[in-house]
Amino acid sequence: MQSENPQPPVSKTLAPFRNKVFRSIWTATQISSLGWLVQTVAISWLMATISASDLMVALVQAASTLPVFFLSVFAGAIADNFSRRWVMFAGHCLIASASTTLMISVGLGFVSPWLILGLGFLAGCGFALNDPAWHASVGDILHKRDIPAAVTLMSVGYNIVRSVGPALGGVILAVFGPLAAFALAAVSDLAPISAIWRTKWEVRSSPLPRERMTTAIHDGVRFTAMSLEIRAATARAALFGLASISILALLPLVVRDQLKSGPIVYGILLAGFGMGAFIAGMGNGFLRKVTSQNRLVAFASVACAVCCLSLALTSSVPVAAISLALGGAGWLITWTGIDVSVQLASPRWVVGRTLSIYYALSAGGMAAGSWIWGSVAQNYSLTSALEGAAGALLLVAAAGIVLPVRPWEETDQESSVFHPPDVALDLKPRSGPIVAKVEYLISEENIEAFLGYMRTRRHVQSRAGARNWTLQRNLQTPSLWTETFRTPTWMDFLRLNHRLTAADKEVGQHLLSLHEGELPPQTVLSIERTTEAIRTRTSTIFSRPPR
Asked: Reduced to 3 states, what is the DSSP secondary structure of residue 382?
């Protein structure tokens, strides 16, 4: 990771801006976001005017979020195996292509609801590529202690633009028409493409070859599934996305049917949403000091529920604007808190994949929520949809009891140095399966502590790639314990050890302190061979000191 200047002991909210690379890409991203928000206002209002279906209006939100659900996991594997900088570049090129095509289509007078949804889907594919790579790159560009401030700045920056972009979009739409809005969006997409092209940052490369995509995705899913903090945060995000997207998905209908207003009011209300998010972002550090992260996220869900309920009951534009400011505050606090929790709980080797799984499930929740609340509005009433979403958000707040968002901890998640052991055979990367055994001598009074550390070790080793992990106690010598695990190939064994962080290896130090042998525990490695008649296979065993 790089840092241009020495950092203070405690990271300030604006500290990431001292890094030139982060500052450049952050600024370009806000320019692009401004164009995207102007375009979003134009698309949503255009859809509301050319389609009589409430569901089609709500699906505008789903069109850009659904690709994130389908493609993010694949994109995360790409971000962890290839240059994150070029993955970001490709993502923004897709977004620019969608905006340019939409501009040309509107200019030629060829526009339809399905074309709008299709190009929104293409832009969503660009976001699916860019977002995991950009958020994972924050840990490459900045020091770990600056990650919470950087993620907050990314959310605050977007919501600063959100407080201006929608109102600007409403004015442009009312005065100049949708073509001007789409042209602005197409031009603004050039800013991040230029910034990424001009900037570079160092990334610690792995000495091992790239993983196959299927293996990389499998390893990312396994790590996420075995990490309690990431699993709980991701589930919470999916539920929140499903319920809270009702605010943005149904807002065009609230403006059109309930407030009896036009695009300018729609833009003003979206600006209120963004302003609330901006204020919450600037006060996020203070809020984290006065209450726990889990409780803060629960309060944020309640704030969004109040927003939904207020929109369902009011016909006043000022009341709706205040309600949306409250909803925007809850929106930013929730997504910032969960995003940072996932980042800090993820080692660098897998952070792109854990973030992509989190994005995929949260985007899937938002896409499903757009369809659900749009269907409720169409088949019942807009008021029923907003009231139902408010009730769902209260349930999401209560879900914090069983799905808590853990406190942010700045543990060392960098992969530690690993030196491959010397072996007596000429092993190929695909040679295997490999069996590893480690023997410990543990006195009776240390057994409980030993088993506690072994439970942690099993979790650490298994999520890094160990298979069939077991612990055996010798019946003839009860003080002798043997830890055994397998990897499918020699390359998998090397990957496992490269993935272990310094924090992971602290468990090994605790086990070493309980070992009572004269020599430290030895790791015995074997390669499995069958006794098939056609092939002649030998088995070899070699030892190395434990890491």
From this structure: helix
**Are 436 and 469 within 8 A, CB to CB?**
no
Alpha carbons 137 and 124: distance in angstroms, whole number: 20
Question: 495: which residues sit within 8 A by CB, 6+ positions away?
Answer: 208, 211, 465
Distance CA 386, CA 258 (A): 12
Highest mean pLDDT, choosing among 69-73, 157-161, 216-220, 476-480: 476-480
| Residue 395: partners with Cβ closer than 8 Å, 6 or more residues away | 239, 243
Contact 145, 19 (CB under 8 A): no
| Rounded CA separation 304/325 (Å) | 10
From residue 376, give the alpha-carbon distance in Å to each of 258, 342, 372, 402, 514: 16, 33, 6, 28, 61
Q: Where are the alpha helices (DSSP H) in 147-262?
A: 147-175, 178-188, 190-198, 213-226, 228-253
Q: Model-level pTM?
A: 0.75
Q: If you search the block for the tokens 């240059």, which residue do you land on? A: 83
In the block, tokens 């106690």 appear at 473
User: By the 8 A CB rule, do 377 and 253 touch?
Assistant: yes
Are the C-beta atoms of residues 166 and 266 closer than 8 Å to each other?
Answer: yes
Kindly state the tokens that stand for 100: 């340019």
Q: Cα separation of 145 and 157, whole Å?
A: 19
Express each pLDDT in 255-265 by its tens digit.
Answer: 888 888 887 78
In angstroms, the CA 296 to CA 376 distance is 30
Residues 306, 327: Cα–Cα separation, whole Å: 8
pLDDT, tens digit, for every residue of 17-76?
A: 888 999 999 999 989 988 888 888 788 777 777 776 767 776 776 777 778 777 778 888
Angle at 318 between CA 314 and CA 319, to 5 degrees: 35
Render pLDDT for 227-279 as a digit per residue (tens, 0 to 9): 888 999 999 999 999 999 999 889 988 988 888 888 778 878 888 888 888 88
- Which one, of 32, 10, 295, 302, lies nearest residue 154 by Cα? 32
Strands 434-441, 480-487: parallel, antiparallel or unpaired by DSSP? Answer: antiparallel
Does residue 389 carry a pLDDT above 90? yes
Side by side, which strands form the sheet with 541-544? Answer: 467-473, 480-487, 434-441, 523-527, 541-544
Which residues, 6 or more positions from 316, have their beta carbon under 8 angstroms from its beta carbon?
259
Task: Tell me the two tokens of residue 422.
Answer: 């010397």
Q: What is the pLDDT of residue 164?
A: 75
Tokens of 2: 């790089």
Q: What is the per-residue DSSP string for 232-299?
A: HHHHHHHHHHHHHHHHHHHHHHIIIIIS---HHHHHHHHHHHHHHHHHHHHTHHHHHHHS-HHHHHHH
Sequence-distant (≥ 6) Cβ neighbours of residue 409 within 8 angstroms? 344
- Tens of pLDDT, residue by residue over 429-454, are 888 899 999 999 999 999 999 999 99
The whole-angstrom separation of Cα 121 and Cα 63 is 5
